[in-house]
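Hypothesis: this fold can be encoded by more than one sequence.
Test: take the structure tokens below, design a sequence, compare later.
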């Protein structure tokens, strides 16, 4: 039987108060979000060249304190894992959902031949909390934590803690890595500081609303393992087209040059209430895709969604019908461009979608 990651000592509740109040607290002040993220560490002299050769982004270009999102693909170019990588002087930290930690470790170890690389599972050593909101700088100051500058996944070490720039909502945010022995005390201190600023802890119901309104697909829900990176709209965020060979590279490059995908991850701004996941999309009376996630955005005062659509029905600005082919009430939004803050829905909403 496969090993299972130990549960976090701080857990993740569905709601700490009311999900809508928690969302408002993030937009108004700053929220504290326990995460189901787990941590692997690559060490050894060949760690950089190894990860560069088995993943889709340009790992060799990263300096200590920098990071990126990257994909592990099959030889056919299909997604196996979406993960974040952060480079230190003596290791590379990898972050993935707790449900995939053991499988990712086994996959990386199976790819080793003669390389000097060790893959360490640090799931039992650390927990992760995300801080996000317009008052992020203030809570970092109260907690005496640094604020990493730079692009997504850039980071700073703070003793035996780590602070990583991550976008999980429309607001500025960081993931904080905390030693498990300090987790409960640190979480309580974070929550108290957040409440003093007008926010508080954020459960997974509100976290899901926040990620959907930020246009962030979730692996296993909006991004599927049988997809190519271009189908998942990840080619600008997690793929380098200038690096050398890596597993699946030939297929991904061929798609970039010649096309050939039949579906695409998209965003939608929808008139009316949030449809259920699985609701069908229609264009010109024909079925065109399905909803994967949807929520009412309190920030935009609109319903927004993530979906899988046929390529010919994925053009930004196109009107689609939801649940019934009779009435077009959704506008397609491109979610592929990397953002440091805000949402791909912002501009579309401002243009009257």
């Amino acid at each position: 039987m496969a090993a299972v990651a130990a549960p976090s000592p701080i857990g993740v509740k569905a709601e700490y108060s009311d999900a809508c109040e928690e969302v408002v607290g993030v937009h108004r002040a700053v929220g504290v979000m326990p995460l189901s993220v787990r941590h692997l560490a690559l060490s050894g002299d060949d760690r950089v060249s190894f990860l560069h050769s088995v993943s889709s982004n340009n790992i060799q270009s990263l300096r200590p304190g920098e990071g990126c999102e990257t994909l592990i693909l099959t030889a056919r170019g299909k997604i196996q894992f979406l993960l974040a990588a952060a480079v230190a002087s003596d290791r590379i930290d990898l972050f993935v959902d707790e449900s995939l930690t053991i499988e990712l470790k086994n996959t990386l170890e199976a790819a080793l031949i003669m390389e000097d690389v060790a893959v360490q599972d640090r799931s039992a050593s650390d927990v992760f909390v995300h801080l996000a909101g317009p008052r992020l700088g203030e809570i970092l100051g109260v907690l005496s934590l640094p604020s990493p500058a730079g692009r997504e996944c850039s980071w700073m070490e703070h003793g035996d803690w780590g602070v990583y720039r991550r976008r999980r909502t429309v607001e500025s945010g960081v993931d904080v890595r905390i030693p498990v022995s300090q987790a409960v005390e640190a979480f309580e201190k974070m929550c108290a500081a957040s409440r003093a600023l007008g926010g508080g802890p954020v459960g997974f119901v509100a976290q899901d609303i926040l990620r959907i309104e930020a246009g962030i697909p979730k692996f296993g829900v909006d991004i599927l393992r049988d997809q190519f990176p271009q189908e998942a709209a990840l080619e600008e965020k997690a793929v380098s087209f200038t690096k050398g060979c890596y597993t699946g590279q030939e297929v991904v490059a061929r798609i970039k040059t010649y096309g050939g995908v039949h579906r695409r991850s998209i965003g939608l701004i929808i008139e009316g209430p949030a449809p259920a996941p699985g609701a069908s999309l229609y264009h010109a009376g024909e079925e065109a895709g399905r909803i994967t996630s949807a929520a009412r955005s309190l920030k935009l005062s609109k319903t927004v969604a993530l979906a899988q659509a046929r390529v010919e029905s994925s053009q930004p600005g196109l009107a689609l019908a939801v649940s019934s082919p009779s009435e077009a009430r959704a506008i397609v939004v491109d979610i592929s461009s990397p953002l440091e803050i805000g949402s791909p829905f912002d501009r579309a909403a401002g243009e009257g979608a």
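The radius of gyration is 20 Å. The chain has a mean pLDDT of 94.
Hypothesis status: open.
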